[in-house]
Write a structure and sequence with these properties.
353 residues, alpha/beta, TIM Barrel, Type Iii Antifreeze Protein Isoform Hplc 12, eight-stranded parallel barrel, two-stranded antiparallel ribbon
């Protein structure tokens, strides 16, 4: 399965897991807080930070946008006010992109609608994320295929038929695509994780597949890497007790650092899949494998028979698979019982018939 290039990073194939620190809305409308979260992601070892862009005016019907909403009075009194408080303008995004690049990380953003794609195109983002909320938004997918940049698509709260419809648009548009298995439950219970769904997505769509998690802690995220996730995405926060949409189900700085450490350890544990005797194994092999040993004294000129041989530690001599090189041949010298047999003790094969 081919990898997808995002910025300077190959995602998929045998490349290391692409770790996305989802800042999302956890900046609470503050550029300074957003920069702190970028610093947190950098220090923890993330490859990428991600934000979210919405066209608030087109997000919902007027009655919903202007309905009273007392969840976060610090942000506003209506849904519209809350959403507008959390949106950055062009200049703020330019500042955050420059700051991210200075930190050596990739900047991504979720586009929730067509106007947001147009806004982000003006910023020159390397790729796009589409949230599970947008999976059935077919006009959004068509717009992204016109742009032609790689797309990471989450697949929560939808059917396979709905994923089929979205993926077919990217296939027809020849747009590089990564799918993320996702459970849109906040927080996600461990029993909901269904990581085997990653296998279904790989087999059905033949594209790189990763994982977007909303669990408390990060066990499913690390296990997803063990199942081959090419990318993982997790919300991050400065403090899980902060006011806002996603702080409670996010990873704080220490948890993020621990998760990424365990992801990299999991990758080391998985290895390459190539079978070879390591240097450390060779020490044990030499000690415990068996070698060909004389089971009795063998005189020079005597034809060696199988009954004259046995196999014992250490493993530094001829293994049982080399018996054909010794049987029916003459000893060049006297071989004392319990001696490791080597080929220089054996006469070369006589070619005469």
């Amino acid at each position: 399965m081919e990898s997808v290039k995002i910025g300077n990073r190959e995602v998929g194939g045998h490349h290391p897991c692409f770790v996305i620190g989802e800042i999302g809305l956890n900046h609470n409308g503050s550029v300074d807080m957003a920069k702190q979260l970028i610093d947190v992601a950098k220090e923890a070892g993330a490859d990428c930070v991600k934000f979210q862009k919405r066209n608030v005016a087109g997000l919902a019907v007027e009655s919903l946008l202007d309905a009273d909403d007392n969840r976060f009075p610090e942000f506003g009194k209506t849904y519209r006010q809350i959403r507008e408080h959390l949106e950055f303008d062009l200049k703020e995004y330019q500042e955050l992109i420059a700051y991210t690049q200075k930190q050596g990380m990739i900047f991504l953003c979720t586009a929730f609608d067509v106007p947001s794609v147009e806004f982000l195109e003006g910023l020159g983002v390397a790729a796009y994320k589409v949230a599970s909320h947008g999976l059935t938004n077919l006009p959004l997918h068509k717009k992204l295929t016109q742009v032609g940049k790689p797309v990471i698509l989450s697949t929560g709260m939808c059917t396979l038929e709905e994923i089929d419809a979205a993926v077919s648009i990217y296939t027809k548009g020849k747009t590089p695509l990564i799918l993320l298995h996702c459970v849109s439950s906040y927080p996600q219970a461990l029993g909901e994780s269904n990581l085997r769904m990653m296998d279904t997505l790989k087999e059905r769509y033949q594209v790189p597949v990763g994982y977007s998690g909303h669990e408390m802690g990060f066990l499913p995220t690390v296990l997803s890497v063990a199942r081959g996730a090419c990318a993982v995405e997790r919300h991050i926060t400065l403090d899980t007790s902060m006011v806002g949409f996603d702080h409670k189900l996010s990873l704080d700085p220490q948890a993020l650092k621990s998760m990424i450490k365990e992801i990299r350890q999991a990758e080391q544990i998985l290895g390459s899949g190539a079978k070879a005797v390591s240097d450390r194994e060779q020490i044990t092999r030499n000690k415990y494998h068996v070698s060909m040993v004389a089971s009795r004294d063998i005189k020079a000129g005597e034809v060696i028979e199988e009954a004259m041989l046995e196999f014992k530690n250490p493993g530094t001599g001829l293994p049982p698979s080399r018996m054909k090189d010794v049987i029916k041949k003459k000893a060049k010298q006297n071989i004392t019982k319990d001696t490791l047999i080597s080929l220089d003790m054996i006469e070369e094969q006589d070619d005469k018939e």
